[in-house]
Amino acid sequence: MSYDFDTLKVQAGYRAADHNYAVSVPIYQTTAFALGDSYRADRLFSFSESDPIYTRLSNPTVDVLEKRAAALHGVTDAIALASGMAAVSYALLSAAGKGGRILTTARLYGGTVDSLGHLFPELGVKIDFVENPDRIEEFEEKLAPDTKAIFIESLTNPFATIPDFEAIARIAHAYGILLIVDNTVATPYLFNPFEHGADIVVYSATKALSGHGNVIAGLVLESGTFDYGNGNYPHFEKPLWFLRDEHDEPRSILQVFPENPFTGRLRAIHLNYLGAALSPFDAYLVLIGLETLSERVTKQVSNTLAVLEYLEQNEHVLWVRYPYAQGSKYRALADRYFPKGAGSILSFGFRGTEEQKRAFLASVKVFGYQANIGDARSLIINPAQTTHVELTEEQRLLVGLEVSTIRLSLGLESPKDLIEDLQQAFDSVFQD
């Protein structure tokens, strides 16, 4: 029997009878799990059985989160990690293999951009950038023979721009390479990238998925339909000694994990050896947050539209960036891909001096001056000098990130109070 999204976010991946009939998912706060006997240990270590062995690799609480996330996307498998950056890094490293390339854009979280420019080249992964992501042809023009993946955000941070997913997916799949989508801002409630051609989806579950600003977590999910044996991913086909069977015959990732090769490889190699394991308690917090995902996001989108209307009429605002802002060139893509709303992040240009902008940021009382997004609380930040400070001047020009930019992440408060808070902050700066 199939269930709707709101049922899955509360119940998917959990059967109380398997956990002493506990109504809420228990927190399995343990380092290791008894192996039983040496024969069962042989089966576990040869991947013939999938029960947990050691919490760095798997844990029943984390397992429920992974199953629930997979169910919300209608895919085969997910892996939970200790942070969103771990999710991004592991996914791109696994896709690239040894010496591969990743094609992406500068329309990403600032920390991601900086890691692509500095860390990944040190690890032998080459990065290519599309300068104008709105010109779809450039994605094909920038492909190289050793490009292993195209990496994009579904709703970009901080301007909530929208790529044409299906067009980009067609390019990726025509060349037999992965399309990896960071869906952090949108969440699966507003947008499911797998329905539009994504092969891998990553999240900072720190943000709207958990939604309460109390946990750091990441997720990687896979479609289960991509052909990793197409010749572009020899690192998935190479026999590995540590994956040997009961007859000591080395096996490849594709042999051991035929249904979930990407997340299987992440678990067996990257999580195993680099160790960004999500704790059981943190997995529990994400599960609690997921239970109210659609209700929270619906209210946040509503608040965003109310604040958008206010800002568009404010004389101290230079411009507003949001798919449903006046004159936005992303309106048609928003209507096509985001019928439930285009997220709860918007940015605007502050009409005033740098000191006036800083005084404005210091004057808000309801909005919190924080670098997070997707929180139940409404947040405000100057991204060019904080969350995206890593971007070079050239990269900021490509993104259109001006120093005057202020980013809002709308929470669950009264829209009236949010608007009045912004107004009193403007009034305190621009007194006659």
List the helices and strands and how they pair.
Layout: H1 5-11, H2 38-45, H3 60-73, E1 77-81, H4 84-96, E2 101-105, H5 110-122, E3 126-130, H6 137-141, E4 147-153, H7 165-174, E5 178-182, H8 187-190, E6 200-204, E7 218-222, H9 234-237, H10 253-256, H11 261-274, H12 280-290, H13 293-312, E8 317-321, H14 331-337, E9 345-350, H15 354-363, E10 368-369, E11 379-381, H16 393-399, E12 405-409, H17 415-429
Parallel strand pairs: 2-3, 2-4, 4-5, 5-6, 10-11
Antiparallel strand pairs: 1-7, 6-7, 8-9, 9-12, 11-12
Helix pairs in contact: 1-3, 3-12, 4-11, 15-17
Helical content (DSSP H or I, runs of 4+): 25-40%
Order of helices and strands: HHHEHEHEHEHEHEEHHHHHEHEHEEHEH
Count the domains: 2
Helical element count? 17
Could you name the CATH class of the largest domain?
Alpha Beta
Rg from C-alpha positions? Answer: 22 Å
Terminal-residue CA separation: 65 Å
Number of DSSP strand runs: 12
The profile of the biggest β sheet is: 7 strands, mixed
Based on helices, strands and strand pairing, what is the structural class? Answer: alpha/beta
Detailed description of the structure:
It is a single chain. The protein is of the alpha/beta class. The protein folds into two domains: 285 residues, Type I PLP-dependent aspartate aminotransferase-like (Major domain) (Aspartate Aminotransferase, domain 2); 136 residues, Aspartate Aminotransferase, domain 1 (Alpha-Beta Complex). Helix content is 38%, strand content 13%. The chain has 17 helices and twelve strands. It has a seven-stranded mixed sheet, sandwiched between helices. A five-stranded mixed sheet has the order 8-9-12-11-10, with helices on one face. Helix 8 links the parallel strand 5 and strand 6.
